[in-house]
Amino acid sequence: MTSLVNLNVNVATDPVRNAVTVNAETTEVAVALVGVTGARGYSIITGDGEPTASDGRIGDVYINTDDNSFWGPKTQSGWPASPFYTPGQTTRHIHTQASASATWNITHTLGGYPSVMVVDSASTVVIGEVSYVSTSQVQVSFSSPFSGYAYLT
Q1: For the chain, how big is the Rg over CA atoms in Å?
Q2: Residue 48 carries which DSSP code?
Q3: DSSP annotation of 65
């Protein structure tokens, strides 16, 4: 029993990239289609020291192989002034509020405006009003005083 299969391949647009091979002995048909090469995507590039203005393209991320810090992504105005990740950098701060207070003043070394989760001495999550005094100080206010822990990330 012989099967007949119709195969339509348009190789007129790019005959080098599109190929049809027929094996007369086994009647196997192989079709290889390769698409057009697209635009360059974003890359991760590496180098010694901080990235320079000529390093990479917009959207790229740079890894400084001296300290393994990550920079980027590069924008139209260039690389950011500081890396977005540096190994060994503190990424969490735990504040202990030993004495009961309705206002907790927390000093941290995380930089920026971290998220804050508070638990009381019984490990119950407590919601308070978080105010960012600066990039190194947070104040959390509650309706009544208690002691516990604040976790900043």
Answers
A1: 30
A2: S
A3: T
Q: Report angle CA 47, 48, 49 to the nearest 5 degrees.
A: 110
d(CA 97, CA 104): 7
The reply to whether omega before 15 is within 30° of 0 (cis) is: no
**The two structure tokens encoding residue 150:** 């604040």
pLDDT tens digits for 60-102? 999 999 988 888 899 999 999 888 877 776 678 999 999 999 9
DSSP 59-89: T-EEEETTTTEEE---BTTBS-SS-SB-TT-
Structural tokens at position 15: 């005959």
Domain locations in the chain as residue ranges: 93-152
CA-to-CA distance for 51 and 60, rounded, in angstroms?
11
Cβ density class 122-146: b for 16+ within 10 Å, e for less? eeeebebebeeeeeeebebebeeeb
Give the separation between CA 147 and CA 153, rounded to whole angstroms: 20
